[in-house]
Each structure stands twice: as structure tokens, then as C-alpha cells.
């Protein structure tokens, strides 16, 4: 079994430069002089204002790219879904096929850059896609996504957390519905680290620095630019995961360079496997990966030895993936019905039993997942509540200037 996050390599700049000519070229050199790029702290790579929880953005609807009318009958398919590998339960797909008497054909990609580049070029044509928050603006400006008609999406209002019915990155949910939510925290093996608990530290985000030197060679960090540097920022006391202040990113870089040198830090995105088999004992981790980690443990390893910390007050890194309908979809009504179907509580529960990434539905609580035997009580911290999500530190799009700052800082860390 492969988790969706194992395959993720989120570039700091991406989406084939949609709406931002020359952006990728300007940043392909990891030592790009920041002064060589004009700073526009208020605009994203698509040219729209940078969306933030305290600065919601209403995405534009263009005269040549409108939502489909209401009251249409679904097409006969096949529905074409462009998705990450192993990011939907095959049984969920089969259930949809039976319900609507259609076929669903899934094509997969391994990086978001690859996917968006193909969509932007017109080389591929699909009905549904899984955009990410940081790329949504570019996909809208580039007219890759089409606006949604909510009359086909009753489950959006009936089941989804209110915070994501009208999200800050897409006011009115004009182009997207949420798919999964996840947090980035700290995973560890309690049998190898008896008594270890990040919450006991004055700054829990410094756990890798505090415990790591004593277990050098057994410590890992996600090989992900934004999550990695965010950990460095939090260790130094900065809480803006989208900062474009050079001194703060320099501090995060320095903190991570120290961690690399003192712990023989390992970089990867299969922390669920390396913690489960005991190869590593302490690791920055994604919540969905940790929820699935007991499945990867050797026979006889109790699930209770796998632990995950993320701040109960919600002031930690969060993110969410979403679903959208592509412009030019051959089956747009069926695509809307598919999005609505995935927002059903029973369907989401079945989907979780395969990919272990939580959907932001009011029915999907830690108590429900523990009661259904899908996660052990000792890993209920992998499930986030809406109140926590509202307080989370969420990754948003960066300006071109900020993107170069982040990319250069991460390149320095990975070169140690």
C-alpha cells in the first residue's frame, strides 16, 4: 500500500507558471538572487491578491468560463478522474459506478507540477481533478478549472464543516469543494523513547532538537520544502507559515542546518514506514500517514507504540486538498455528482479505511473513527476537529519574491 503523501513533492513554485510568465525560469536556479526579482508582497503567481485566512479572496469568474446550468441529466460517462496514486478507495469508486450505472476511469500523476503542466498544455483531458490550495489561484486564472454549480452539490452544505463551505482561499466555494484535511506534527515510537512527550517541552516544536542529538541517526524530517522550513520557523518561535521576512527564513534555515549536523537527520516522505518498522524513532510527520502507520508495523508490534503530537489548541500546521471540475469536461454533470458523492458521510468513512486521510465532514470525529476500529485511541490526535482547523497555521500561496526566499533557504538546508 502506498500513501498519497509518500508521492508528494510539493514544489515552492509550480503549476507551469500559469499567470506568471517566466516564474519557473526565474526560480529554477536554487541560488537565485532575491534582489533580481521584483517583490510584490500582495500578489500571488497568478496575479491575484494573496489569499490568507484573515484576507479571504473571491476568485474571478470569467465570461468565457461559466458554471453549467442547473437541472441537467448526468452524462453516460465514462467519468475521467485525474488523481494522485492511491488517493481514493477503489471500492468507493465501484460503488459510484453501480449507483449511476457508469464507468469511472482514473489516471494518476506523481507530482502536482506534472499534473498541472499536462492540463495547461491541453495534452490531457479529464472531468475531475484534485487541486491544492497553493495552486488554486493559478488554475483559475489559467482557466483550467470551471466554476461549480452548487445545485448539484447538496452535501457541501449538509455535511462539510462550515469553515470549508465558504473557504478563505475560494470565497463561496466557486471552484472547489474540500477533499481531505491533514496536520503536520511529530511522530515517534514510545517503546524506543519511553517518557518522551513533546507537550512537556516549553516549545514542543523543538522536540527534534531536544531529543535528536541523543538518538542521532534515528531522527527524520519530511523532505518537503514548506513543511520542513515551517518546523524550523516554529522552533525559533515564528508562527507565520507563509512569512516572506528574510530574517525569519534565515533563522529557520540555521535551525535546520544545526539539526542536520547534530542528529544525522534523515529526509524522506515515508515516515509511516520508517517509524512503523523501527528504523527511525522520531520524525516530523503528516497526520494521515501516522493514522495508517500501524498497518506497516511488523507482526506483533502493538499499535500503541506509534504516537503523534500536534497541538490540541490548533496552533499548528494544517492543510487541505480539494476537488474540482475541469474546464472542457466531457461529463460535467456526472463530475459534479461525483464530487457530491465523495462528501457523503458513509462514503467518506469507507474512503478513510483505505487512504487514512480525514475528510472535513461534521460526522467524521476522532470518536467515530476509534469506535469503528479504524484508528487506535493512541492515535486519535491524527484527527482534527473543525475548531482546531479554524485556528491552524495554514499554507497559502507565496509571492514570486517569497517563493525564491523559501526555495533558496531549503536548498541550503538540503545541501548540508
Highlighted features:
alpha/beta, 10 strands
Please render the helix and strand layout as text.
Layout: H1 23-27, E1 79-84, H2 90-100, E2 104-109, H3 112-121, E3 128-129, H4 133-141, H5 154-159, H6 162-165, E4 177-189, H7 207-211, E5 219-222, H8 225-235, H9 246-263, E6 266-268, H10 271-276, E7 282-286, H11 287-292, E8 306-309, E9 317-325, H12 332-342, H13 345-355, H14 366-371, H15 386-391, E10 393-394, H16 400-414
Parallel strand pairs: 1-2, 1-3, 5-6, 5-7, 9-10
Antiparallel strand pairs: 3-9, 4-7, 4-8, 4-9
- What pattern of helices and strands is seen along the backbone? HEHEHEHHHEHEHHEHEHEEHHHHEH
Strand content: 5-15%
- The residue ranges in which pLDDT falls below 50 over 5 or more consecutive positions are 4-32
* Helix content range: 25-40%
- Which term fits the overall shape? globular
Rg of Cα set? 21 Å
N- and C-termini, Cα separation: 32 Å
Q: Count helical runs.
A: 16
From the helix content, strand content and strand pairing, which structural class follows?
alpha/beta
Main beta-sheet annotation = 10 strands, mixed
The CATH C-level name of the domain at 47-181 and 321-368 is Alpha Beta
Rounded mean pLDDT is 90
Explain what the structure shows:
- The protein is of the alpha/beta class.
- The chain has a domain at 47-181 and 321-368: 3-Layer(aba) Sandwich (D-Maltodextrin-Binding Protein, domain 2), CATH 3.40.190.
- It is 34% helix and 13% strand.
- The chain contains 16 helices and ten strands.
- Strands 1, 2, 3, 4, 5, 6, 7, 8, 9 and 10 form a ten-stranded mixed sheet that branches.
- It is globular.
- Mean pLDDT is 90; it is low at 4-32.
Amino acid at each position: 500500500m502506498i500513501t498519497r503523501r509518500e508521492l508528494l513533492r510539493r514544489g515552492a513554485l509550480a503549476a507551469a507558471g500559469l499567470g506568471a510568465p517566466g516564474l519557473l525560469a526565474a526560480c529554477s536556479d536554487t541560488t537565485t538572487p532575491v534582489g533580481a526579482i521584483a517583490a510584490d508582497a500582495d500578489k500571488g503567481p497568478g496575479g491575484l491578491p494573496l489569499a490568507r485566512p484573515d484576507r479571504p479572496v473571491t476568485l474571478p469568474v470569467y465570461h468565457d468560463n461559466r458554471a453549467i446550468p442547473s437541472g441537467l441529466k448526468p452524462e453516460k460517462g465514462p467519468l475521467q478522474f485525474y488523481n494522485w496514486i492511491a488517493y481514493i478507495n477503489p471500492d468507493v469508486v465501484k460503488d459510484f459506478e453501480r449507483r449511476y450505472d457508469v464507468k469511472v476511469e482514473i489516471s494518476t500523476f506523481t507530482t502536482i507540477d506534472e499534473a498541472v503542466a499536462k492540463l495547461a498544455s491541453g495534452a490531457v483531458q479529464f472531468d475531475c481533478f484534485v487541486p491544492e490550495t497553493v495552486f488554486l489561484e493559478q488554475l483559475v486564472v489559467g482557466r483550467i478549472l470551471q466554476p461549480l454549480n452548487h445545485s448539484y452539490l447538496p452535501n457541501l452544505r449538509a455535511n462539510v464543516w462550515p469553515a470549508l463551505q465558504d473557504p478563505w482561499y475560494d470565497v463561496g466555494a466557486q471552484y472547489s469543494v474540500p477533499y481531505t484535511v491533514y496536520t503536520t506534527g511529530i511522530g515517534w515510537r514510545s517503546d524506543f523513547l519511553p517518557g518522551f512527550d513533546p507537550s512537556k517541552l516549553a516549545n514542543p516544536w523543538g522536540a527534534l532538537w531536544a531529543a535528536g542529538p541523543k538518538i542521532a541517526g534515528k531522527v527524520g524530517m519530511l523532505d518537503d520544502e514548506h513543511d520542513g522550513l515551517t518546523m524550523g520557523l516554529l522552533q525559533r518561535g515564528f508562527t507565520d507559515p507563509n512569512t516572506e521576512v528574510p530574517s525569519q527564513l534565515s533563522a529557520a534555515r540555521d535551525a535546520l542546518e544545526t539539526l542536520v549536523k547534530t542528529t544525522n537527520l534523515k529526509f524522506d516522505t515515508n515516515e509511516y514506514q520508517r517509524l512503523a518498522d523501527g528504523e527511525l524513532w522520531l520524525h516530523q510527520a503528516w497526520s494521515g500517514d501516522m493514522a495508517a502507520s500501524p498497518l506497516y508495523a511488523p507482526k506483533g508490534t502493538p499499535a500503541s507504540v506509534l504516537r503523534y503530537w500536534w497541538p490540541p489548541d490548533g496552533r499548528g500546521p494544517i492543510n487541505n486538498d480539494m476537488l474540482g471540475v475541469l474546464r472542457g469536461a466531457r461529463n460535467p454533470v456526472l463530475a459534479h455528482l461525483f464530487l457530491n458523492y465523495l462528501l457523503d458521510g458513509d462514503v467518506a468513512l469507507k474512503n478513510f479505511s483505505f487512504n487514512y486521510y480525514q475528510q472535513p465532514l461534521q460526522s467524521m470525529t476522532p470518536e467515530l473513527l476509534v469506535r469503528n476500529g479504524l484508528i487506535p485511541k493512541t492515535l486519535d490526535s491524527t484527527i482534527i476537529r473543525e475548531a482546531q482547523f479554524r485556528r491552524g497555521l495554514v499554507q497559502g500561496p507565496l509571492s514570486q519574491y517569497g517563493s525564491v526566499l523559501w526555495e533558496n533557504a531549503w536548498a541550503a538546508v538540503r545541501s548540508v
